[in-house]
Amino acid sequence: MRRVVGGLVFLSVSCIAAILLARSAHRAPAAPPFGTHDVRVVPATSGTALASPPERAPTQRSVVVDESPVDVSGLIERTHFAFRPVRDGFIGGDATYEVSVAGRRIQFSPEVPATQGLRARRGAAITLSTLEVSRDGVNLLSSTSKFERTRDGALEAQDRPELSERLRNTKSGLEQEWRFDARPAGTSDLVVSVGISGQAYVTTSRSGIHMTDRATGLGTVYSHARWIDANGTATDVPVTLVADRLVVRVPATVVDSSEFPAVLDPTVGAEFAVDAPIDSPASQDQTMPAIGHSGYINAEFLVVWSDSRRSVAGYNADIFGAHVTRNGVVLEPEGFIISDSGNGASNANPVVQWDGASNRYHVVYSQVLGSVQNIVARSILGPSGQTPSVPTNTLTIAQNKHANYPTIGINNTQSQVVFAVAWQDDDGIKVAKCQPMGGDFVLGDVGTPLLARANAPGGDTFLYPRVAGSDPSVGFGSNFLLVSERLNNANAQSGIVGDLIDVNFTLTNLSNDIATGASNFGVTDPDLAFFGTSGTWVVVYTRDTGGFGSNYDIFAREVMLNGSFPGSATGIASGNM
Description:
The protein is mostly beta strands. The chain has a domain at about 75-275: Beta-galactosidase, Chain A, domain 5. Helix content is about 5%, strand content about 45%. The strands form seven sheets. Strands 8, 9, 10, 11, 13, 14, 15, 16, 17, 20, 21 and 22 form a twelve-stranded antiparallel sheet that branches. Strands 1, 2, 3, 4, 5, 6, 7, 12, 18 and 19 form a ten-stranded antiparallel sheet that branches. It is elongated. The protein starts with 5 loop residues before the first helix and ends with a strand.
């Protein structure tokens, strides 16, 4: 990003490389997989007692090597958001804002990044300074304290041993936090007052206090605060504007019932207009999108994708997500991370499935971790419109054998919820039955995978599976239909094959191809959905219809609940090249 000094970033990366080289030079042999390493101190072996006088045995030292994974992308992210010292204080920020700090004075300037040939714009700064932190009229602030840089790049001002103010840059804006290590003495409400100037007041909304620079149209939102105690109990606390002060009042009942330490943490963000934040473009690549919906009226969609913004030299990617309203408004403009953010894996090909029984989305994706390629899943609390809650646990569904291209379907009967998760690997197409277990692992009970279609050396190879359940809630049984692409290098033919999976997870191969092609890749890219009105699956695919060169068209074919497909294929989109 432009605000990070280039030399600092390059120095950090070179230091990281040096550390990694040093660690690899001293790495103990036979390291366990997945980055989980046991530290062992090996004692010197004892031998037979020697006749006098024994020679002094050489001193044996056990070297303990720390082989815990290094979160390189996290380190670079902290470097990017860290405050940097300048002559009269500190400076920091992100692509959409800049923060300048001197003493206890904070200046926040909203900015529009330069994009698509347009020049960057900067709005007038708002100036913030904490004037009061009091209870029973006793101001706890120190008149001499000022912000100092911490080891993690944040700023902190220590007013008393039990009270400090902390500033930290994030993608959403400047996070301002007051930390209380002990309950402030007194019986009244706890009052925090912050002086504000530099922009004109516009309005107060559910998101906070909105200010604007009328000359540029750029503005600032000072969010409502949240009080969080040591037990993790959170209480939303409104912020009000009184003359030229922002006032946060934590009720005495909340303070007295809290466990300490506790924090109070509003955020300062940049925006174009009220509740229209300035978005910074995500760096590097965002690819492989997938979408899911809960089926609730007016609920938002969940969009997931593979995201390289945190990658190091483009070698790893995360799975991100965001809720999108039916009007196209993105509720989390920066997205939120779904995959494990600290293991350095490369994650791709996500799919998403709503589970009404547990009120969650399940996101399944492929993960390359070192030399191992797995199919894993994580669950997100829903429906959309709520704050995303991504469990810390990751469920591994398939391990190694180059497992890739996962797909997920659901059948929700009156007695049970069953998911089918399928993927391709070196053996062919596999599918596993997954059932809820509660807690973070909603897909926790993973059955033994079935080999739906086996690759044959020199013969058929099966790729790109897709699965969908029927709709048992309206009387259409509880089968799954699994489709995949078949290639045959020996006779240069291809096809779309299907497999039925019943409620007991018994698999039956359909004897005939749903579609056939006269050459390799003659029919490709299958997908399907269940059509509740007629009680059939509709399978769509690409077909090379020949002609001069290649002519790729889109076709569809219905498959009945019993696996038959008596009708002919229907052209959806066609045209000659």
